[in-house]
Amino acid sequence: MNVESLRSNVSQGSQSAEIRIAKAAITICFLFVASWTPYAVMAMIGSFGDASVLTPGVTMIPALACKLVACLDPWVYAISHPRYRVELQNRLPWLAIKEESETQSTVTGQTTVTQTTATAEAAQPASAPATS
């Protein structure tokens, strides 16, 4: 955050990029801890507890939870991006995402170049050496 954004109340309604990044990072960290805790508990039970309760089916659940979170992480990053949220709002209005679209537009200049065949032929040298 810069000092100008702290002094003025220009963008009170919109969140800064730092806040959005922090929310995504906190969500990713929470998902990491939530997915690896069952795996750590299972490893502790296997090392120091009664290993007979750890059947192959029971040990598969924490492993699948870890893999599921690895698949969810890109979605967390995508949903935290404002342009992606605007596009989701446009394509799937039933999700009820209330994201304001960006009103800034960039002006690009277009230069059109037209050349007729007569000027193109005139630009070519008349005496081209013959290749043999």
TrEMBL record:
Keyword Transmembrane helix: yes
GO CC field: membrane
Locations listed in the record: Membrane
Family assignment from sequence similarity: Belongs to the G-protein coupled receptor 1 family.
Keyword Membrane attributed: yes
Species for this entry: Oryctes borbonicus
Bias kind Low complexity: ranges: 103-132
MF GO annotations: G protein-coupled receptor activity; photoreceptor activity
PANTHER family per record: OPSIN
Domain of life of the organism encoding this protein: Eukaryota
Transmembrane annotation, as ranges: 21-45, 57-79
Membrane topology category: Multi-pass membrane protein
Pfam families (UniProt xref): 7tm_1
SUPFAM superfamilies: Family A G protein-coupled receptor-like (SSF81321)
Annotated protein name in UniProt: G protein-coupled receptor
Region spans: Disordered: 101-132
Keyword tags: Chromophore, Disulfide bond, G-protein coupled receptor, Glycoprotein, Membrane, Photoreceptor protein, Receptor, Retinal protein, Sensory transduction, Transducer, Transmembrane, Transmembrane helix, Vision
Primary location group: membrane
G-protein coupled receptors family 1 profile domain: residues covered: 1-77
InterPro entries linked to this entry: GPCR_opsins (IPR050125), GPCR_Rhodpsn (IPR000276), GPCR_Rhodpsn_7TM (IPR017452), Opsin (IPR001760), Retinal_BS (IPR027430)
Example GO BP: phototransduction
Signal peptide: none
